[in-house]
Specification:
Length: 372
C-alpha cells in the first residue's frame, strides 16, 4: 500500500479516544466500546445493527458500540473487538460490524442520512432534516425540526413531533405519527396508518390496512384496498376510497368517498357531498351554519339517512330502485310527493323553499330524511 493510501486510511479511521469494557455474560462476552471523534461535519451514518442517535448541544461526537461475542477467553475477545471500529471521514460515520450503536451528534446538523442493514433506527432531537433507510427493522423518529423521508422494506415507522414535510414509504409495516407540522405523504404495502395532528394536506395509501387521521390542516386523500378509513377533522376536501371497509368522516368542508363493502358515515359535513357504497348504509349529518352544494349519496344495498338542519334550504330528489313500499322513503319535513312505479319509489321535495340539490339513490333499503 502506497503512502497516500495509508494517509487516507488513517484519516478515515481517525479517533480521538476509545475505551473497551469486557465482562462475562453467561456463555458469551459482553463488549462495550465507547469513544469520541474529532470535530467534523456529519451528513451520513450507516450501521449494520440497531442505530440510536441523539442530537446534543455542542460539537463533540460520542459513540457507544455494544455486542456479545463468543470466545475462549478475554484475550481472544479483545482480538475480536479490535475489528469493531468506527470509520469516519468525508462527512460519514460507518459502523461495518453487526453491533448496536448509540451516538450523540451536534443537534444543529443541517441534513443527515441514516441507514441500518439489519436493525432498528431511533433518532431524536435534531434541528435539521433527516432521511432514514431500514432494510429490516422499525424506524422511530421524534423531535426532528426539518423535513423527514423514510424508506423501510417492512418495518413499522413511528413518528413523534416532526417540524416539516414527511414522506414515508414502507414495504409492509404500520405508520404512526403524533404531530406533523407540514404536508404528509404516507404509503405502505401492508399496515395501518394512524395520524394525530397534521397541519398540512395528507395523502395516505395502504394496500392492506386501515387509515385513521385525527386532524388535517388541508386536503385529505385516503385510499385502502382492505380496511376502514376514519378522518375526524379536515380543513380541506376529503377524498376517501376503501375496497373493503367502512368510511367515517368527521367535520369537513367537502367530501368525496366510495366503499366497495362498508357503511359510510359523514358527520358535520358541508359543501359538496359525494358518497357511494356497494354494500352498506350511508348516514350523513349536515353541519349547521355552513352551506351545502349540489350533492349525491348512493347505495346498492343498504339504508340512507340524512340529518338536515331544520332551517336549511335544500331540494331533495330521493329514489329507491326495485320493489319497495311507499313508506320506504320517510321525511320529517312536509311537502314531499312520493310516487311508486315499476322501477321503484321516487320522492321530490323542497325543504324551506328549496336550495342546492341533494340526490339520494338506494336499492333494497330505506331513505330517511330527518330534522337535525
Amino acid at each position: 500500500m502506497n503512502r497516500i493510501a495509508l494517509l487516507l486510511l488513517a484519516a478515515f479511521c481517525a479517533q480521538a479516544a476509545e475505551k473497551i469494557e469486557i465482562h462475562r455474560d453467561g456463555a458469551a462476552w459482553q463488549v462495550t466500546i465507547t469513544g469520541t471523534l474529532p470535530q467534523q461535519p456529519i451528513s451520513r451514518i450507516a450501521a449494520m445493527g440497531d442505530l440510536a442517535i441523539r442530537g446534543k448541544r455542542g460539537k463533540e461526537i460520542r459513540y457507544t458500540l455494544s455486542q456479545k461475542l463468543i470466545a475462549a477467553d478475554e484475550a481472544a475477545v479483545r482480538q475480536l473487538a479490535a475489528f469493531y471500529r468506527v470509520q469516519s471521514g468525508n462527512g460519514q460515520l460507518l459502523f461495518p460490524q453487526p453491533a448496536a450503536v448509540r451516538l450523540e451528534i451536534p443537534r444543529g446538523t443541517h441534513f443527515l442520512a441514516v441507514s441500518s442493514a439489519a436493525g432498528t433506527i431511533d433518532v431524536a432531537d435534531l434541528d435539521g432534516s433527516l432521511r432514514a433507510d431500514a432494510e429490516a427493522g422499525r424506524i422511530q423518529l421524534d423531535r426532528i425540526a426539518g423535513d423527514v423521508e423514510i424508506h423501510s422494506n417492512g418495518g413499522a415507522a413511528s413518528l413523534g413531533s416532526i417540524g416539516g414535510v414527511v414522506r414515508c414509504y414502507s414495504g409492509g409495516g404500520s405508520i404512526r405519527a403524533v404531530r406533523i407540522n407540514g404536508q404528509a405523504y404516507l404509503e405502505t404495502s401492508g399496515g395501518d396508518i394512524q395520524l394525530g395532528q397534521v397541519f398540512g394536506p395528507v395523502t395516505a395509501f395502504t394496500a392492506a390496512g386501515g387509515i385513521r387521521i385525527e386532524q388535517a390542516g388541508g386536503q385529505v386523500f385516503a385510499d385502502t384496498l382492505g380496511g376502514p378509513i376514519a378522518v375526524l377533522r379536515a380543513l380541506g376536501m376529503v377524498v376517501a376510497n376503501s375496497s373493503g371497509g367502512p368510511i367515517d368522516i368527521g367535520e369537513a368542508p367537502s367530501v368525496q368517498c366510495q366503499s366497495a363493502a362498508g357503511t359510510i358515515r359523514l358527520n358535520n359535513v358541508s359543501g359538496t357531498l359525494r358518497a357511494a357504497t356497494e354494500r352498506g348504509s350511508i348516514v350523513a349529518e349536515i353541519l349547521e351554519g355552513r352551506g351545502l352544494a349540489d350533492s349525491f349519496l348512493s347505495t346498492r344495498s343498504g339504508d340512507i339517512t340524512v340529518l338536515i338542519p331544520s332551517k336549511m334550504g335544500v331540494t331533495i330528489e330521493a329514489e329507491i330502485l326495485g320493489l319497495s313500499p311507499r313508506q320506504a322513503i320517510i321525511s320529517d319535513f312536509s311537502g314531499f310527493q312520493v310516487q311508486t312505479s315499476r322501477s321503484g319509489v321516487v320522492a321530490v321535495g323542497r325543504i324551506n323553499g328549496g336550495g342546492p340539490r341533494l340526490r339520494l339513490t338506494g336499492a333494497g333499503g330505506r331513505i330517511q330524511i330527518r330534522k337535525k
